[in-house]
Amino acid sequence: MANDKYETHEYDVIVIGAGGAGLRAAIEASAAGVKTALICKSLLGKAHTVMAEGGIAAALRNVYQEDNWKVHFRDTMRGGKMLNNWRMAQLHAQEAPDRVLELEEWGALFDRTKDGRILQRDFGGHRYARLAHVGDRTGLEMIRTLQQHAVHKGIDVYMECNIQRLLKDGDRVCGAFGYWRESGKFVTFKSKATVLATGGVGKAWKFTSNSWEYTGDGTTLAADAGADLIDMEMIQFHPTGMVWPNSVRGILVTEGVRGDGGTLRNSEGERFMFNYITDYFRAETAETEEEADAWYEDKTNNRRTPDLLPRDEVARAINAEVKAGRGSPHGGVLLDIASRRSAEYIARRLPSMHHQFKELADVDITKEPMEVGPTCHYIMGGVRVEADTAATTVPGLYAAGEVAAGLHGANRLGGNSLSDLLVFGRRAGLYAAQYAQDLEGHPSPATDQIEQCAQELLAPFNNDGGENPYSVHMALQDCMQNLVGIIRAESELKKAQTEIASLKERLARVTVEGHRQYNPGWNLALDLQSLLTVAEATTMGALERKESRGGHTREDHPGPDPDKYGKINLVLRRKDGEFSLSAEPLPEMPDDLKELFEEGR
Amino acid sequence: MASEFTMRVWRGDLSGGEFKDYRVEAQEGMVVLDVIHTIQATQAPDLAVRWNCKAGKCGSCSAEINGKPRLLCMTRMNLFEPGETITISPIKTFPLLRDLVTDVSFNYEKAKKIPALKLKAKEADGTRRMYQDDVDRVQEFHKCIECFLCQDVCHVIRDHEDNKPEFAGPRSFVRLASLEMHPLDEEDRREFLKGDAGLGYCNITKCCTEVCPEGIHITDNAIIPLKERVVDAYYDPVVWLMNKLTGK
Ligand code: SF4
Ligand code: SF4
Ligand code: FES
Fold it and tell me: What is the 3-state secondary structure (H, E, C) of A129-145?
C-alpha cells in the first residue's frame, strides 16, 4: 500500500488537542480500556487552558448552601440568552461538582474554606459564589493535574504534531493526517473514533486573548468531514483585556478582579455600569453603589453588582463609554481594585494579574487602576454535538470543549468553560470509546485520500505567487477586528465577505521559504486555511442573524427577535469548500425545566 | 517611542549554524518575543521559536538572552539601551532542534518516572479536608509553568551531559516536593529521591532559584526539605512517618 510511505499509527480512539477537554477525554477513553492517543500542536501542558484564570463553575455548595444544579442551570441559560442546548446545560450543571472533586482526587489543590473544603468565588452571571479556584491561575492547576494524571496512566502522547485533515472511510471518520512540527514529516493516524478538542478561533482577530494555536482547526476539520456547525456568529469579547502597551493589547485580565471587589470606572471616575443595566437583568442587579458593595458580603439581602453582569453586557458598555469619549488614555476604561481592597488581599487573590501588569505595563495594581478593554476571547458557536454523547453529525467523530457548540448559547458565563471541558471532555472520551468497542473491523482510508492531503500540504513550497503568510494573516485580523467585531452592521459584514474572498485568493498564492523542519512560516500558511474558513463561517452567520443577542450585536438590528431568531440555531454545512446556511429550531426544553424560568425570584 | 536594536539570533540546527544580525525597530512596551515575531513577519519567515501565551503563563518561550536563561515574552525591550546588540540563543542544556527551539523531552521523560500521588482514605463523611495553611506551601510549587529554565541553568546537567540519566533536575524536585508535602499523600519516595532522582548531585548552588520566572524558592523550599527528609529519615522510619503526618 502506498500509504506506508508515511509513518502510521493505529488506535481505537485518537484525541486531537490536549487542553482540558482533550486530556479529560483521553483519560476517560483510556480508562474504558481502549487504545488511546492524545495528539497536540504544542508541547504537553501548554494548551490555552493554561491561561484560564478565574475558576471552575460548579454548584458545590461549599460557600452558599442555597446553590444547586438548577440555579447553575438557570444562570447558564439566562447568560446564554436562552440559545443554549438545554440538555447540555443541564448535564453540565449536574455533573460539574463531581468533575471538580475528581480533580482534587488527582492532586489539584484549590483554595480552601475555613472548614477545609474547596473555596468558591463570585463571577459574572452566577447567582452564588460558585467558582472553585486557585488564586488566579486555575487553568494551570487544572491542566497540570490532568497532564500528570494522563502521564501516570501511560497514555501515548504525540506532541507538536499538527493535524491537518480527517480521513474517511465512506461516511465514517477513520483517522487523521498531519505533520510533525519538528521534522515537517507527515504522519497518519488510523482510528475507530476521533475526538476533536482543538479549542477556538481567536487568532482570526487582531486583539485577542488567544494563543497562536487558536486557529479554528477542529471547526474546519469537522466542517470538511461533513459535520454541522452552529451559531458561528456567537463570539465572546471578554470585557477586560489589557489595552496598553500596544504589544500586549488583548491579553486577558481575569474577571476575578471584579469578582474580588474591583470596579469599572470611566475617565470621569464614574462607575458607569449602573447606567447599562438592561431590563433582562434589572430585577437581580443592584441599583446603588451601596447595595453593590454590600453584596460582596451579604448576598441574601443585596443584589449583584452590575460590574458582574454577563460578559456581553459589560463588553458593550465599555465599548459605548469609549465611543462617547469617556475612555482611558489608551482607549479603554479603568478597572480599579487598588482603592477598594488592601494590597495584601490583592497580592494574595490575584498574584498573576499583579505580576502581569508589573512586568508588562509597569503598573502596580495594588496602587493604581488598570486600563482594560474588550478582547476576542471565546467562540460559543462551533461543531454541533449530541448533548449526551458529544457525537457530531458524522459517525466516528466527537467534539468537546470550545470547538463544540451548544452549552453556552449566545454568551458564555465565566467559569463555565473549565467545567465544560471536564464534563464534556469526559463524555466525549466515554462515548468515543464505546463507539470504538462496538465497531466491527477497522475502517480504513483510501490511499489516494492520504496522498492528496500530502500534496495539498506541500503546495506552499511549490508556489511562486510570492505572498507572505504573515501579511495575509495580519490582513485577516484587521478585517475581522474592524468589520466583524463587537458591534456589527450589514454593510460592514458584506465588506468583510468580499475581503475574505480576496484573502482566499491571496492564500492560494502564498509562498514559503526554507525547508519543512520547524518552519513557522509554513505552519502558518496551513493554519490560514482554517482561519479563513472560520472567518467566513462567522461572517455568514452574523449577516444572517438579524437581531442582537449575546455575543452577536447588530447596530442595524439592535434588539433581540424572540419570535424568530430566538428560536433557531443557524446551521452551516460545507460541501466542496462552499458553506450553505439553514435555520433549524432549537431543541425544546421539557416543561419541568421551563418552570425554573417562570417563577419570580 | 520606537528605538532601533540589533538582534543577534542563532540560526541553525544540529548540523551547524551561526548567529545572524537583524536590525529591528522596537515600539514602546515591546518584549523580546514581539521583536522576534517582527523578524519572522518581515525578514526571516522560517525563524523557529516556541511560544503560546505571550503572558508568562505557559513556559514555552524559554531561551538565553545575552547568555541569561529567560522567558522571551516577559523580557521587556526597555531593559536594553537603544542601539544595543542583543544576543538570543536557544537554551543550552537540551539538544537543538532548530534556531531557538530545543528538544526538551528529557523533562517529560523524567516526569513519567516520578511516583504518583497516593491519597489516604477520605474522611468519615466522604469529604476531603485540607486547610489553607497546609496547602499554601504546596501551592507555591504548583505555580511552576514548566519553562525548564531551572533545568537549563543547573550545572549538574548543563556542563555534564553524562549526568543526565542519573539526575532529574530542579523542576522534578519541585514536583517531588509538591507530592511529598501534599497534606493527604502517603506514598514513600525516599528511595526514588536518593536513587533515580539523583538528589545527592545537587550541591545547593541556588542558580535554579535565581532564574525561576515564577519566583519559586526551589532550593530553600523544595530541595533542602527533600534532602533533610532523605538524610534524617532514610535510616529512621519513625522520623519519616512523623514528617509525613505533620506535613513537614
Ligand atoms: S541548587 Fe541544585 S538543582 Fe539548583 S541549580 Fe544548583 S545544583 Fe542544580
Ligand atoms: S520551577 Fe520555575 S524555573 Fe523551573 S520549570 Fe518551574 S517555573 Fe520554570
Ligand atoms: S509564551 Fe508563554 S511563557 Fe512565554
Answer: CCEECCCCCHHHHHHHH
